[in-house]
Amino acid sequence: MEKRMPTNDDYYVVETDERSPSVRVYLLAVLQGLFGVTLRHFLRNLFGGKQDMPTISYPEERRPIPEGYRGKHVLYRRADAPDKPRCVACFMCATACPARCITIEAGEYQDGDRIEKYPVRFEIDGLRCIYCGMCEEACPKDAIALTSFYETAAYTRKDCYWTKEDLLESIESMRRRS
Ligand code: SF4
Ligand code: SF4
Fold first, then answer.
1. Looking at the domain assignment, is residue 47 inside a domain?
2. 175 CA to middle of ligand 2, Å?
3. Residues 169, 93 share a domain
4. Number of compact structural domains in the chain
5. How far is 124 from 104, CA to CA, in rounded Å?
6. Residue 132 beta carbon below 6 angstroms from any ligand 1 atom
7. Distance set, CA 11 to CA 6, 14, 17, 82, 105 (Å)
8. What tens digit of pLDDT does each residue of 24-67 get?
9. What's the pTM value of the predicted model, to 2 decimals?
């Protein structure tokens, strides 16, 4: 079939902005925000006591975390073998992950008369993760969970790439270190 080039009739023009140029420079809105909101809060906080001030003295004070908050992940350890992760390297979490930020390399070991799988490598790219919790939902072993730990700021991209050892660290230990 011959390819037809589009004409003007193929397009529907949507008028998106009919405001005058004086409105579109947002000067009035900026001044309203500056003097109507910012200055009002500034003066009220300065002379009206601290009760209205939304600022908290972090890290001495910490904001309460809402129930269900999803922060950094942990990998749980086996109850009967605390040196081993509960993860069996089934790839369900990596398959469910919409951000494709989980990398797993599977290995095997002899456990009594059984062959068990385990993650030789288990890594999460914390900069790509969108903290959706799909990995936690997909895991058949309850081996991965998102915790309420949110202090994941780092100086390098490499430090935002969490390895198996990072993920096996308990939330208490992460809190002590932060
Ligand atoms: S929280 Fe979502 S984006 Fe992050 S690793 Fe899990 S599935 Fe992927
Ligand atoms: S879904 Fe669970 S058991 Fe499977 S690879 Fe992910 S963390 Fe491991």
1. yes
2. 24
3. yes
4. 2
5. 9
6. yes
7. 8, 9, 18, 64, 50
8. 788 888 999 998 899 988 888 788 766 666 778 888 888 889 99
9. 0.72
Do 55 and 77 lie in a common domain?
no
Nearest of 35, 15, 17 to residue 27 by alpha carbon: 35
**DSSP secondary structure of 31-92:** HIIIIIIIHHHHHHHHHS-STT-----TTTS-PPPPTT---SEEEPBPSS-TTSBS-----H
Same domain, 51 and 87: no
- In-domain check, residue 67: no
pLDDT digits (tens, 9 = 90+) for 92-130: 999 999 999 999 999 999 888 889 899 999 999 999 999
- CA angle 90–92–98, rounded 5-degree value: 145
Q: How far is the CA of 72 from the centre of ligand 1 (A)?
A: 10
Q: Which residues line ligand 2 (CB under 6 A)?
A: 87-93, 104, 138-139, 141, 143-144
Q: What residue type is assigned to position 36 of the chain?
A: G
Residue labelled with tokens 């914390």: 126
Residues belonging to the chain: 178
Q: Are 148 and 171 in contact (CB under 8 A)?
A: yes
| Parent domain of 35 | 15-59
Based on the domain organization, do 114 and 162 belong to the same domain? yes
